[in-house]
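Obj.: predict assembly geometry.
Materials: sequence records (below).
Method: joint structure prediction, all chains together.
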Amino acid sequence: MITIPYLTALTTYFSYGLLFVFGQFRDFFRKIVDWWLGSNLQGYAPICLGLEDFYTRRLYLRIQDCFGRPIASPPDSWVDLVERVSKDNNKTLQRTAKISRCLNLGSYNYLGFAAADEYCTPRVIESLKRFSPSTCSTRVDGGTTTLHNELEEVVANFVGKPAAIVFGMGYVTNSAVLPALIGKGGLIISDSLNHNSIVNGARGSGATVRVFQHNMPDHLEKVLREQIAEGQPRTHRPWKKIMVLVEGIYSMEGELCKLPEIVAICKKYRAYVYLDEAHSIGAIGKTGRGVCELLGVDTADVDILMGTFTKSFGSCGGYIAGSKELIQYMKYACPAHLYATSISPPAAQQIISAIRVILGEDGTSRGAQKLARIRENSNFFRSELQKMGFEVLGDNDSPVMPVMLYNPAKIPAFSRECLKNQVAVVTVAFPATPLLLARARICISASHTREDLIKALEVFSKVGDLIGIKYFPAEPDKQQQDEGRVKLE
Amino acid sequence: MKDFFSQMQSSWCTSEKKDCKVHIFELVVHLKMEIDELCDEWVPEPLIPKMTDEMRYEPPILESAAGSHTLINGTEVINFASANYLGLVGHGKLLEACTESLEKYGAGSCGPRGFYGTIDVHLDCEARIAKFLGTPDSILYSYGLSTMFSAIPAFCKKGDVIVADEGVHWAIQNGLQLSRSTVVYFKHNDMESLRDMLEKVTKGNKRAEKLRRYIVVEAVYQNSGQIAPLDEIIRLKENYRFRVLLDESNSMGVLGSSGRGLTEYCKVPVGKIDIITAAMGHALATEGGVCTGSARVIDHQRLSSSGYVFSASLPPYLTSAAITAIDILEENLDLIMKLKKNIGTLCRGLSDIQGLEIASDLASPIVFLRLKKSTGSLKGDLQVLEDIAQHVLKEDSVLVATSRRSTLDKCKLPVGIRLFVSAAHTEDDLMKAGESLKRVAALALNGHD
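Observations (raw structure tokens):
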């Protein structure tokens, strides 16, 4: 639940309204100019009709320089940002040769494996020489190497399940596995703020999809009871199976899932639980085993564990972990296993080496140090930001920290001002978040040092004062402000 | 009197209200009990169906790179199961470029393209591929499979019309389903059927002129090895005003005198195709996918293609591999000649095999063998072909692939044995494969002819 002050809500609505009206004026003039010059589409329908890309053309293009910034170095704690210039008022951007070194608070580099690592990189290069960058083949044809089998065993052990299957891309894991598990006649109950890949997978499966309010186990129970009692739409036959989709850490809120309650409810009503640990695996928990370890949930209670390797392991790909029969069935039925090129062998080796480092099997305690550091860094940064008066979302221990901006003009202002002070941040607006709730999202890494964080805090304080995003100043008239608030979800 | 009646009325009302309240309360309790009963009675199906023997299939495990020769269980095997068309797997230059990239950038890119996941090699690669194919711009995806199923929903929305070949592979089918447009299939590689479908869809339909209309075809079909007659398709497209979406995964780097794909092979200017997609896990010996077309088409995908916006970008070492692969291809055009020669040799070697026939086009790098006489069901066919493939591997050390289908695949084309020919195969390899298949097929299909 995010509370937005009245005045801020008013000014945000006003800003968007102004941008909308302005955009419509420009569209109107564009229509006249086009009519004058004649269309060159030759009878084909345009790629985007009317208001479909209004947001892109009139709002996004103005602040395009805040997104898609190219880098010229590994996405480590300090990164070389390539500067871009625009000669036509931000419609197109060209690369320059200038580079500026910035503190990176935007990349998903939770355990610091992004750059070349002393243990991982030599092993990755060795497996590159042995297996080549790609097998050019699907897993069932000729794309399964000894590395792939080793990887699946290591992942299964790490996560705490009997078996696992690995795919080359996290997005495809969700989109191709859900249709294989559940189809027409089944019911999917998904959290309202789930990631796009889960939504796509649920849609592609053909099952009926219902949504429960974000992270509210009571509402989930209500929806479950209603749906079981009603049955399938129109025919009212009982559902074939019910699956509940939740995430470990929600990437736009930084919140942890209320897993123990949700698992208890699902056990009671015999629904299956699918947990997407894209952001939480490797980053939270005492030994990095994710949200189950942190919240004390037995992994045998969660039917299907899914995760990606891009964030904490510095590689690419996704996995599904479950019982041996489930994984065997996936190998038989899942299209991503049968039709897609297998995961690149060097990337697989990177994951194996990263897991070994985390578990301390490389003979050092670097893994435990990394885990401790990310926890310390996250908690320190969050508490300092809150003390300064920013509105920070998310739970303790979560390395993802959204800082609320709300107003559309503050998005580019925050991004550009921070860049001027050598801090690279990520700002997110519509459509990744609701229209009014634009935010800056900070991702803390284990490779950030205390000095880096202090520098970032100084810059944030300066920029925050300049732009006016310290919505919760630590002053005695805070109570007065509480009354003038609008509750938003 | 009035008082009496009003008193009666008021007492009647309150008792009615009380009754109502009691009734509603009882109703709620009943409902709750009923729902509890229904919830207790409901038993879900098991998460997965019962395991059968065919589900326990274990693929062969490679112990070395998937080049033209590979190691399985300690024995050297001739590999026809990798789509390594130009023989670039294990190429020295490729490995060098990747090593450099790994040392400089690490393994992963740690972020989506919009949030510091755009590394300068990505921009270089996009420019390089656009230059190679002769198109204005291109966009990189991090996985071959996701290219098509993200590109299609970015352009086709609810209400649009798509005419697609019935033999397209699963990624395209999934994209068509996600786009929620009206999809009409035409008979596999049959231009007459395509013309009929286009006619049917546009005839008398005034509204169709305002809709976006697409034809979706593959250059070389993964499910059959057939090559699409692009010049015919372009003629039809211009006649009926449809846009063409062409998937060149198996033809980029293979067809055409300089490897530029089906457009060069059929002598069609590349600007006439609206959207070309290709998975790079085939001829270019790397991973990922690319989509190319006009600047408008590419810019649109950068914000509305879900597989691009919501997913991490391609690891930098694989991007460097793609750039190097194109450099190698441009310098060594004889690789394409060698591949063509190899395909010819293999097809000749398999021409009179008992019980099987070549269903693919003679210029296609995928040689597709299907049963002359089907057993009657897809499962039965697959069983016979699996047997042949296993014997060929065990007895003659030749690795071939069968076209296994997922339970979600809607394609109804016959299954078969696939051989991916590579420019790195020698004459001996091809002869051996031909002889081995002939021998095993004769034994297995004796009487099936």
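Conclusions so far: The CA atoms of residues 180 and 329 of chain A lie 9 Å apart.
To do: check interface contacts against the pulldown list.
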